Amino acid sequence: MNFNLLVTTYRHREYDAVDELNVILQRFGDESPILKIQEVSGIILAFTNLNPFELTKKFKELLVEEPWQFRYILRALPIERSFYTDLKNIEIEVENLAIKKIDINESFRITIEKRHASLRSKEIISSIANKLSGYRVSLENPDWIILIEIIGNKTGISVLKEIDIFSSVMEKRKYRDQIE
Description:
The chain has 180 residues and is an alpha+beta fold. It folds into 2 domains: 5-80 and 162-179, Alpha-Beta Plaits (2-Layer Sandwich); 81-160, VC0802-like. Helix content is 37%, strand content 29%. The chain contains 5 helices and 10 strands. Helix 4 links the parallel strand 6 (107-115) and strand 7. Helix 3 (87-101) crosses helix 4. The longest helix has 15 residues, at 87-101. It is globular and about 45 Å long.
């Protein structure tokens, strides 16, 4: 399954999160998103006709206006490429995206979230680091995040900024801090 949005929820609340996500996506104009609950508890893969980066911005705006709309969705991650899990595929896709997006003067960090996968994180990181050896790494405050999400035999990757990630918990905390 191709996917361009990875959504996390509480364990065993996947069906509630799918309903919530479906309502929100339809509200923003996607009448027929494809939403699939994964074998890994708490993970939903989605394919939407909407731009996933714009969507996470809209999620943040909606949360400020109507925080009760997000009861089950914990995080939403825009995914630029999805494919069958394979180290060579990851290498090629990450290199292609990174070269297009990251300026040589900017820094990056690699974030890997693996579930039900046999690939080793160290192996993935060293493979990508070799391909991007001319670029600066910053683990604490990177300009870009190379996000690699592996769910069994499905992998999704993005090269994004911290602001592109939607976390309902973090956004609610920010919102609460602003009104106090």
